[in-house]
Amino acid sequence: MEQSEKVHCLIIGSGPAGYTAAIYAARANMKPVLYQGIQPGGQLTITTEVENYPGYPEGIQGPEMMIDFEKQAKRMGADIRYGLATKVDFSSTPHKVWIDEEKLIEADSVIICTGASAKWLGLESEQRLNGYGVSACAVCDGFFFRGKEVAIVGAGDTAAEEALYLSKLCTTVHMLIRKDVMRASKIMQDRVRNTPNIKIYWNSETVEILGEKKVEGMRIRNNKSGDEQEVPLQGFFVAIGHQPNSDIFKDWLTMDEAGYIQTIPGSSKTNLEGVFAAGDVQDKIYRQAVTAAGSGCMAALDAERYLSAKGSI
After folding, report:
1. Looking at the structure, do residues 57 and 206 belong to the same domain, yes or no?
2. Which of 20, 28, 149, 199 has minimal Cβ neighbours within 10 Å of its Cβ?
3. Catalytic annotation on 141?
4. Residues 108, 140, 280, 302: which is the catalytic one?
5. Both 125 and 234 in a single domain?
């Protein structure tokens, strides 16, 4: 017999959006239950120093900051649990969500904060040096490479934007493009080409990121000639896109072509009543801890209004 439980507010995911939603929902007496998912703390647990979140003048380690968020949510009375949402049925209310394929939660309201995962190149050296010079977020980590040489991989608008951002901080930005064309918009391409300290390598792929304890360089191969070369540098940024963690919702919620859940502008509301989305799973533009936290607050307030109108709380 399947276990089942009825809750007022179910929060799926535990990054800044999920924990902030839990803090607000708990204070509003919604008795939220939060399932942490596959990566408790979200993407911030794979970053080291966070310097741009307000209120931490000395900066803070990403994992430590997420522990603070979790403690605060618990102190407000949120019920925080290990577990992964594996299936949903949003055909009727209360909404049904299965955890770890076995436990059924029936929820009057659901707040989805499942985030997005950076796409990686899949190199052993990339994983080993992640957080030690390898990063998937130039806006988050570029500051640490002020006055240094860095590389960025990617050919889209995000890669071009991040290359330009890094060019203002770093001495040289080595930009690797796999083909002989860029996917970025014409205006972004022109900006990159006209920036003297961005060096573009066409038809180039990374073979290995060099360094034992931290990034010291990269070995790259030209796809046309097969020639390899080593380039010394201190930072390596991957900008080949993000994948929103939204697969289990695809039969129910409106998404864009990349799989980001679409919310009604100015709110956290999805196309289904009582289902809300916050953080990176619905935000491909900003993707910052502070914007995720802000949208988590919006989702809890939207859910509270929804439950109040229904007379559920």
Report:
1. no
2. 199
3. yes
4. 140
5. yes
Q: 218 and 305: one domain?
A: no
Q: Are residues 133 and 227 in the same domain?
A: yes
Q: Are residues 53 and 126 in the same domain?
A: no
Looking at the fold, whether 184 and 218 belong to one and the same domain comes out as yes
Indicate if 155 and 217 belong to the same structural domain. yes
CATH number, position 81: 3.50.50.60
Question: Is 137 in the active site?
Answer: yes
Q: Which of 141, 280, 283, 302 is catalytic?
A: 141
- Whether 217 and 130 map to the same domain: the answer is yes
* Number of structural domains found in the chain: 2
pLDDT tens sequence for the chain (313 residues) = 578 999 999 999 999 999 999 999 999 999 999 999 988 999 888 777 888 999 999 999 999 999 999 999 999 999 999 999 999 999 999 999 999 999 999 999 999 999 999 899 999 999 999 999 999 999 889 999 999 999 999 999 989 999 999 999 999 999 999 999 999 999 999 999 999 999 999 999 999 999 999 999 999 999 999 999 999 999 999 999 999 999 999 999 999 999 999 999 999 999 999 999 999 999 999 989 999 999 999 999 999 999 999 988 7
Q: What distance in Å separates the CA atoms of residue 210 and residue 129, rounded to the nearest whole number? A: 9
* CA atoms of 276 and 299, how far apart (whole Å): 6
This prediction has a pTM of 0.85
Domain of residue 267 covers 4-117+242-310
CB 119 within 8 A of CB 243: yes
Q: Where are the beta strands (DSSP E) in 65-122?
A: 79-81, 85-89, 95-99, 103-112, 116-118
Radius of gyration of the chain, Cα coordinates, nearest whole angstrom: 21
How far is the CA of 302 from the CAs of 64, 114, 285, 292, in angstroms? 29, 18, 22, 15
Yes or no: say if 123 and 206 are a contact pair by the CB < 8 Å rule: yes
